[in-house]
């Protein structure tokens, strides 16, 4: 019985967040595509030098681990005007990331005021 109340509470929170203008994005919405199809990865070392490993799973809730244990898909590093997350520093990450790769090392992710719970502020790659 407690589990159902908890699930209903989570659903009502999600509906409330959507009504408050907070959005949730998926990697497909960031335009991650490959000519050969998505390349699976378990670490950033499985991807090309201009790519990172993006988790196939989104975190749920406020608890967000810095180490992602899920398998992922290689995706391109953020280029000028690409969508990014402010929480990730520029340059190729050393761990699997959620939803989108960080900006290339010569760029920085500037927030646009949109929050993706629990990942934080969404931004756009721009010159440092």
TrEMBL record:
Residues 1-20 form the signal peptide. The keyword Signal applies. The keyword Signal applies. Keywords: Signal. It comes from the Eukaryota. Gene3D superfamilies: Lipase, subunit A. This is Uncharacterized protein. It comes from Dreissena polymorpha (Zebra mussel).
């Amino acid at each position: 019985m407690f589990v159902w109340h908890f699930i209903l509470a989570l659903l009502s929170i999600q509906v409330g967040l959507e009504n408050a203008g907070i959005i949730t994005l998926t990697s497909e919405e960031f335009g991650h595509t490959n000519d050969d199809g998505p390349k699976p990865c378990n670490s950033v070392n499985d991807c090309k030098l201009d790519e990172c490993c993006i988790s196939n799973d989104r975190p749920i809730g406020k608890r967000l681990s810095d180490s992602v244990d899920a398998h992922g898909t290689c995706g391109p590093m953020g280029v000028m005007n690409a969508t990014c997350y402010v929480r990730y520093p520029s340059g190729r990450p050393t761990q699997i990331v959620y939803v989108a790769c960080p900006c290339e090392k010569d760029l920085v992710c500037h927030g646009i005021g949109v929050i993706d719970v629990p990942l934080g502020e969404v931004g756009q790659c721009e010159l440092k």
